Amino acid sequence: MDKIRDAQNKPKTRSQLAGWLLFVVCALFFIASSVHNRDILTFIGSVIFLVACIVFIVPVLRASREAGDGGNPMDDGRSADKTTRGERKQ
Fold it and tell me: Which residues are within 8 A (CB) of 10 and not within 5 positions of it... i.e. 6 or more apart?
């Protein structure tokens, strides 16, 4: 039963992590823009936003490690299967 629940949660965890990583990328662009424009208020807000994103990423990574999938929520498990299309396992 736990394997079924883990299999159902894995895509959710991957999409959550992907979303938070996109937010981190946005924060980095906001930081770069604020440095370019010499806008200290935007810089401070962007750094706070980046830190907040990292705070939200940590539980996603912890949940992935506790689930016992090796700590890589972006791994979809296909690499463990050595067969290619059209081949059958024996």
Answer: 67, 69, 73, 76, 77
User: Is this structure's pTM higher than 0.85?
Assistant: no
Closest CA to 60 of 68, 70, 50, 71: 71
Per-residue tokens: 77: 């498990």
Angle, in degrees to the nearest 10, between helices 2-37 and 40-66: 160
Tokens of 33: 């823009």
For the chain, the distance separating the N- and C-terminal CA atoms, rounded to the nearest angstrom, is: 26
Q: 31-66, pLDDT tens digit by residue?
A: 999 999 999 999 999 999 999 999 999 998 888 787
User: Under a CB-based contact definition with an 8 Å cutoff, are residues 55 and 24 in contact?
Assistant: no
49, 27 in Cβ contact below 8 A?
A: yes
**Structure tokens, 68:** 């016992």
Residue 87 — very low, low, confident or very high, per pLDDT cuts 50/70/90? Answer: low
